[in-house]
From TrEMBL, chains A, B:
Pfam families: LacI, Peripla_BP_1. Signal peptide: none annotated. The keyword Transcription applies. Keywords: DNA-binding, Transcription, Transcription regulation. One of its GO terms (molecular function) is transcription cis-regulatory region binding. The keyword Transferase does not apply. CDD domains: HTH_LacI (cd01392), PBP1_LacI_sugar_binding-like (cd06267). This is Transcriptional regulator, LacI family.
Length: 331, 331
DNA sequence: CTGAAAGCGCTTACAG
DNA sequence: CTGAAAGCGCTTACAG
């Protein structure tokens, strides 16, 4: 069943059928209805490939993230898919991995599929692998609009939507210091854009409060509860507060504190990042900085739709994080 | 730049170019190389839409799950995407939600996109909404191969890959009873296929060990740590073991036990399901039943590829779960 | 408001 | 091993 069949059955030309499919205003209501009825009766669906050939688009956006099994990315992807669908866009998912090659390949596959736009989730696309490694994004942005969620690069055609991670960490560390903490550890798992911002916030807060930035207090580690715990145990660092770039490491730290029989809240404060369910699994429950995936996703999609409609949109949009204070962790 | 340009530039016909694109064995190595060189030089990529029109496929599979932000589904989707890509298939993601309408819509959108196959993740597609609600899957299976991950329905063209949830729970409950537990609670959050199997395993184990199945010990609740904890607190149930259909509820139970100053392991055993990172966040760490997403995803993709290649494949494939015993929970 | 016709860029059966 | 030609099923500028 194709457009010719429908045309024949409804006694019009294929041009007219095409117009009613695309809801063209130039068709009379009467013929519109006539054709619709036939299409419904025979359960006709236009062939996407043919439409694609004609229109050079099938309303698809590429969603790329290093790994959807990561809680943060999964939740972003979920919101994005939902929001995009509202506007009739389907989502092709690519888990690119964290390596440069994987990222380049994912972007290439998507471009070859003639997607209408691309949304990259997580700040691992903003050049954490070196200096010139965003060339592939620049190239991609020449072809389709590119949205970066939680990363920032100043490239025409790349729209960046992010939360203010610098400020979130800066403020938190200031609060910790005001509450009397002096030996504050920063745990992180990557050198991505957002992590770098968090690190800067951490360092600046220390400096602005007259504390020294100590190298051994900046700990790079796997983002994994048990590994984080054990690494801290091995290092035997002496600290009275922890802030981590993701919850899993923070929970690991919390467990370590437990292990050495210190009291969370009394002796040590622990703050996580991303406000995942992990925060309420541990004891005591853990404060965390919420990175607002839902809001970001919404802004990302709205902006993208505007861009696709030819409207102008700001190249960088930053919203504040939210500090989620759990009763049991006080400062 | 299209196939005509390449043909002209390499001095052959478009038929030949098409053949080298498709790596047809009928082309001489010499012309193959000649054409390849031109394609590479001009960075030519065949137009997917035109290919789609000609081949009636663009090597895409639809991935549908109720909600990717669920840990279990996210991890399955991640593995599926990765495995499918190995075979050159791209993945269109659809988060259908848990309602019937959403599921039907997701499947329809995918079918309209002329996907080559469909993989449904989670057992919510196996008819948890009523009796006749799998008609849309039957219809879909007429058009493309359908794979159900962790669900089972006996429908031609629907291939079901699942873990033996019944046995996993049955065995666990038997072990609990042998260890002296008598008041075993079962927590669950839905009436999906797999949950129903788990519930059956729970009940049969009780019966086979001469215990009574008590209705108040089967607790339907939201799959959420704090809500689970609070609901149990409100119910004031007296129990000495808990098994849940997902980790979050189990952790909630564990926290409740903590709250009433009972000892996990001494007084109460708690076992979760899906072996997520939540299990190691709580204290003490929690045992859980691993539902083998990675293995399932691999089998799912392998089977699908076979089906697409016209080979025959078993309609139902079931593998055992793995019990993950954490040191601190003993029985 | 409607139709005839060209065009989108491939694939492939057929002939050689 | 290679090419000419038809076909895949749409969209749309043009003419009326």
């Amino acid at each position: 069943m194709n457009i010719y069949d429908i045309a024949k059955l409804s006694g019009v030309s294929i041009a007219t059928v095409s117009r009613v499919i695309n809801n063209s205003p130039k068709v009379s209501e009467k013929t519109k209805k006539k054709v619709w009825d036939v299409m419904n009766e025979y359960d006709y669906t236009p062939n996407v490939f043919a439409r694609g050939l004609g229109l050079n688009s099938v309303k698809t956006v590429g969603l790329v993230c290093p790994d959807v099994s990561d809680r943060y990315m999964a939740s972003a992807i979920a919101y994005l898919e939902k929001n995009l669908r509202k506007y009739g866009y389907d989502s092709i998912l690519m888990c690119s991995g964290f390596d440069y090659e994987g990222k380049v390949e994912a972007v290439k596959i998507l471009l070859d599929r003639r997607i209408d736009a691309m949304i990259l989730v997580g700040s691992h696309y903003a050049g954490d692998c070196g200096q010139n490694d965003i060339q592939y994004l620049k190239d991609a942005a020449q072809k389709v609009p590119v949205v970066l969620m939680n990363g920032y690069i100043r490239v025409p055609g790349v729209y960046c939507i992010l939360t203010d991670n610098y400020k979130a960490v800066y403020d938190t560390v200031c609060n910790l210091i005001e509450a009397g903490r002096k030996k504050i550890v920063f745990l992180y798992d990557a050198n991505s854009y957002s992590t770098t911002k968090k690190l800067e916030g951490y360092q600046d807060a220390l400096i602005d409060n007259g504390l020294k930035v100590q190298e051994e207090y900046k700990v790079l580690m796997p983002n994994n509860v048990l590994k984080a715990r054990d690494l801290l145990a091995k290092k035997k660092l002496d600290f009275d507060a922890v802030i981590a770039s993701d919850d899993a490491m923070a929970v690991g730290a919390l467990k370590y504190v437990h292990q050495i029989n210190k009291s969370i809240s009394e002796d040590v404060n622990v703050v996580g990042f991303n406000n995942s369910e992990l925060c309420v699994c541990c004891y005591p429950e853990m404060s965390s900085i919420d990175s607002q995936e839902e809001e970001l996703s919404e802004i990302a999609v709205d902006s993208l739709i505007k861009v696709l409609a030819g409207k102008s949109v700001r190249q960088k949009m930053e919203i504040p994080c939210k500090f989620i204070k759990r009763n049991t962790t006080q400062f």
